[in-house]
Amino acid sequence: MPVSYWINDRGSPQISNGSEFGAIQAAFQTWQNVPTADVRFIYRGTTAARTVGRDGMNVVSFTDDSTPLGSSVIAATFSFFRADSAGGLVFDESDIIFNPAQQFSTSAEDNKFDIQGVLTHEIGHLLGLDHAGLVSSVMVPFAALSQLDQRTLAYDDIAAITEIYPKASAAPPVGQISGVIQSGGVGVFGAHVVAVDRDGTALVSALSQRDGSYLLRFLPPGPYRVFAEPLDLPVSEQNIGGGSTAFYRNLKVDFGTTYFGNASSLAEAGTIDVTAGVTSNADIQTLPQSSTGLNLTRPAFAARIPRGASGTLRVGGEDLTDGTVFTTSNNGIVVGSPTFGGRISASASTSATMRLTVASSTAVGPKNMAVNRGGSSSVVGGALVITDVSPSNIAIGPASGPVEGTPVTVTGANFRPGAQVFFGGLPAPDVRVVDSGTIQATAPANVPGATNLVVVNPDGTWGVAAGAFAYLSQQPAMTQVTPLSGPPTTLVTIQGVHFDTRTQNIDVRFNGVSARIVSATTTAITTIVPFGAASGPITISIFGQLVTGPAFTITSAASSTNLAVSAYNFIDASVAGGGTSLSFNNADDSVAAATLPFNFSLFRDIYLAGSQISIATNGWLSLEAL
């Protein structure tokens, strides 16, 4: 610690306003904010590196199109290891890539995955966490579209990261439960063991080891009930361990869900009292596997339900038919009579739909859903997350304004002190929560067009108003071009107003020929005269708005002295001979930077003297700064 990270400078091609860069930094900050864990990050800026590779940098990229990913993969973390002085393996670096085939958003757009939530999950892998068995955890191996819930860590995630990186100065008064899961006197490998507190909240989970032993840590003092569940969906062996040769393979799943006290239901389970600084014991002898194949396999991603709300829940699995009884781990959640149906997924050939009503006094947090048939049961840990009521009925006035600086008033319900307001994923400055129904803020600089307005409370509850604020486009204008003549490779500065800072949103052309953009601000664009251009007007297109400037005169390029000849000579590249001495941070696979001493063009890619180039230890050279 601290761990450095970089973001590929192209950002996400799907995001036009740069909000993905802030979302990435917020995701890293989420883990750093865990008070009981010593986790620290440093953002090192952007890099042209966009593909997975061992280059000495932890890179987040949306534009890696060379690393194969499965069609259902949302994002992936690739970690490289090295041996430490004690002969163990430690992370050397990790690269995180988003699947270009998926759709992403920073503002709860419909049918898109949330960049910040997805990355919060992937950073967990970067830090060493595996997938979680509780479907309420950020580290569950699944995600849902159009939600921001994985931006907020569950207690299970916090306990996990605290176990790896404990901060002694912030150690809370906690205890732990240990024991052995056995079936017929033999240890059960890979049982999903969950601690449930007095409110029915699924707090911490673990997997039993090869001898059946388990350890549930970081439990606040109080009474708990513990159950062991086979890892037989929604999370399964295939989701754990990261590969076919991983530690968690050939897990035992041929046993029945069993609570401490040899019980098949929470109501009959024995209680374990946890005391700070003490390890309590809870051995479990598992019950037989269901003879009818009873198994609750859906939901795979926890449903979020506010306190005091009612709604319909559909669950899936095997043998969900007449005679099964559904319960939750908290009496404040009332389950109505189920209506049974057919297949809802490849992992659920039967289903049930029921009405849920949550009392306003129900404790917030993950709750379990269980199904019983006689003495057999199946549980989905954390299937329901009870939340405080979310922001709703969100509106804004005025509903439009220029691309930056409009004071606004956001109205609605259930706003709480410390709430944040986002316009198209960009945080608003000067946010002031007046009361539970009113927020005053300033619309941040953004790109033209309608944007979603999102309000996020400090507890992670959120609400969205789709397309609620329209940024009015302002016509760009050129005021000066310097110089107005020159050969290809000439550096040209275009001054004006209402430009954009992201080069991917700008198209500069010299008499119709697209030019390379070096840099851009809202008032100046630096570009290079391209080869193939003829004398004629300069045009700029920004967000579809075209502006035509003065004519640029193309002059003849100087004759090149860099000619191909029939013979070759070795050149003295020592420092004494005019070469550059390179310094690498390791001899195995590293990258060093040097300065290009002359203008260099390759087709329409033009690199000017003074540009940074990159050289790897294997001799590979890139004209982009990596």
Question: What keywords describe this structure?
Answer:
mainly beta, Collagenase (Catalytic Domain), Immunoglobulin-like, 6 domains, five-stranded mixed sheet, 3 helices, 49 strands, 42% strand
Structure description:
With 626 residues, this protein is mainly beta. Helix 1 (19-32) packs across helix 2 (115-126). The mean pLDDT is 94. The chain folds into six domains: 3-164, Collagenase (Catalytic Domain) (3-Layer(aba) Sandwich), CATH 3.40.390.10; 172-285, Immunoglobulin-like; 295-387, Immunoglobulin-like, CATH 2.60.40; 392-472, Sandwich (Immunoglobulin-like), CATH 2.60.40.10; 477-554, Immunoglobulins (Immunoglobulin-like), CATH 2.60.40; 559-626, no CATH class. The protein has a five-stranded mixed β-sheet. The chain is built from three helices and 49 strands. Strand 4 and strand 5 form a beta hairpin.
In short:
With about 625 residues, the chain is mostly beta strands.
Let me know the average pLDDT.
94
CATH architecture of the largest domain: 3-Layer(aba) Sandwich
CATH fold-type name of the largest domain: Collagenase (Catalytic Domain)
The end-to-end distance, rounded to whole angstroms, is 23 Å
Strand ordering within the main sheet: 2-1-3-5-4
Number of strands: 49
User: Which regions contain 5 or more consecutive residues with pLDDT less than 50?
Assistant: none
What's the CATH first level of the largest domain? Alpha Beta
Silhouette = globular
Helix content: under 10%
Largest sheet: 5 strands, mixed
Structural class: mainly beta
Q: Over all CA atoms, what is the radius of gyration? A: 29 Å
The CATH homologous superfamily of the largest domain is termed Collagenase (Catalytic Domain)
